[in-house]
Amino acid sequence: MSRATPKSPSLAAVAKREDAAAALKRIICLGLLDKSRKVIRREDRVEIPVLEKLGEFDMVVQDRPSFYRKLPDLTAALRGQIPEGLLRLLPRGWFILGEVIIVKVHPRLRDYESHIGDALLRYYPRCSTVLADEGISGQLRQPVRRTIVGSRSMTTHKENGVVFHLDARVVMFSPGNLKERMRMSRLGQGETVVDMFAGIGYFSIPMAVYSRPRKILAIELNPQSYQFLCQNIEANEVQDIVQPILGDCAVKTPQGIADRVLMGMVQVTNRYLETGIAALKPGGTLHYHQTIPSWQFPEAAVEEVKEAAAAMGRRAEILKCLRVKKFSPGVVHAVIDARIDRDF
Ligand SMILES: C[S@@+](CC[C@H](N)C(=O)[O-])C[C@H]1O[C@@H](n2cnc3c(N)ncnc32)[C@H](O)[C@@H]1O
Fold first, then answer.
1. Domain residues for 52?
2. I need a surface site. Which of 45, 85, 255, 261 has the fewest CB within 10 A?
3. How far does residue 115's CA lie from ligand 1's centre (Å)?
4. Same domain, residue pair 36 and 86
5. What is the C-alpha to C-alpha distance for residues 216 and 259, in angstroms, rounded to an integer?
6. Shortest CA distance to 248 belongs to which of 215, 271, 282, 281?
7. What are 73-103's pLDDT values in tens digits?
8. Does residue 230 sit within a domain?
């Protein structure tokens, strides 16, 4: 989406790659990170978008700033209902699952969140419920959400011709992973696939619907997500392809049978790498998701794959390195595709 020229120039602090993590932390602490623009790596340096000039850093005016997508502005809708001084804290982003809108609300706007909910429902009349998003917690990646307006968090989200039943208060669904879900829907034809972190079927179901693998073993640890996985397998009529398995993939993943292994987890995925690699036949493909500092993309994740393969006496040939989405300021959710060859 193109944008109007910003009123102020697109200022960025410049740091060497090795200093970028500390610089970003400092800029966030100062409250001066410009969240409308992306952190950009340019050869040996990193540009961190800032709201104003900072004496302690080298500065540049970016000639090619990269912006996040822009949504409708709530300020005009809520002027007069919220104290003028708090308008700048209004959410600038949200996402929609079926009939549910999910939005992060600044703690200082808590007393006004019903106004925010009502304004959002006016923008999206087909929606009925607004949930406040307070993050994702723990190994099961469970969302922490409160209802602001409405009462129905059970919904049906349709995407790319695939139906996902889910409870938006209970299970995650990342809008930023859309491109990856689409990509997975084009892979796997005729193959045996293991989806180690299947959730409600984020990757398994689009793959089954469009590519018709021979079999997908979809492993999920959280019983609530597993229930939705089973429901979604039926709703999309892929019972003959997707076999749901309730349990820990560290225990349930079979060895040496897969043409393709999906590791759609972040932050702790490295702990399961050897299990994922062991599941693959020689020449099989691994899709390894991980969160890494954006300026270490893709090396940090590539190293993890290569080292784990080498430790098992196998060789990883890197096929592709993709950015799935921004995970947090300066951190990217990456996916590494690797062909895992037979033993040396
Ligand atoms: C981050 S979510 C999957 C996100 C998904 N890839 C997407 O596109 O939105 C990870 C899923 O893995 C599950 N999980 C976490 N640890 C697991 C384990 N050891 N075995 C199986 N599933 C696990 C969680 O319950 C969660 O449903």
1. 11-61
2. 85
3. 34
4. no
5. 10
6. 271
7. 899 999 999 999 999 999 988 999 999 999 9
8. yes
